[in-house]
Amino acid sequence: LKGRQVEADAFSRNQIKSAFLDIEADEIVKYLLRETDQEVASSLDIDTILSYLKLQCIEMDFLQELKELMEPEKMPRALISFPDQIIAVQSGLYHRRKRFCILHEVAHYVLPEHRHDLFICKNEDFSADADKKWEVEANEFASEMIFLGGKLEKEANQHPKITASLVKELADKYSASYEATARRLAHKSLKPYMLLVFQEGVAGEDLPLKYIISSKVLKARYFSDIALKLKPEFASEIKALGDISSSIEQKAFIETACGKVEFEMEFFSNSINIFTFMTPV
What we know:
single chain, alpha+beta, 5-stranded antiparallel beta sheet, 4-stranded mixed beta sheet, 10 helices
């Protein structure tokens, strides 16, 4: 990989060997895509990845199977057992969310520093604001795999704008969640973009920010954080649009490191969260 003298069989189909201890995560992604003939695929075939690594994936109702062992709030969404070479995911997950969970567990299996007998991952470990180092790395790896390395951002940067319609188009193409696609588009954009994600608050009160994702250009030139809330009436109007590709556009002047700048703001929803793309006019 990139000139390193690594034997082709360094990826043991039963275990990741020590020869990969100095290999970066993005190189492992490229290796897996190449070895499974998916470098130019339109979307990732996860079964091929699992077969190559000799991993089996099963579904489990953790609430039922582990009810005698764990409190409900501590139940996993997915886990991987290294000795058994088995990934288990919560039964009934939306198929795009299930794909991400599987690849998150694959990350624990192939990333050298993650080599343990068992990883048990809860809901918060898959979120954008996960705070455990290994879970953050597993999420980043899963995203790289789903979006075929840098293929998504290369395609997106050919479009004049990042929009809600583009999120839907590319999420459907790569069989990824709308939220993961929106995050990736904002984070990897070569243009100044920020994605704001709002969460449900107390009924009748303004919706607070859940998290923010910014492109490097926007952070460097304008700001990296913003205080903003949504009025519940406006939030209801956005959710009532029904389809993620439908949106409401507004403009607003915001104080930045460059002075007061006018920004375009596009509001849209996946029926769970409300999103806003921001970019200077």
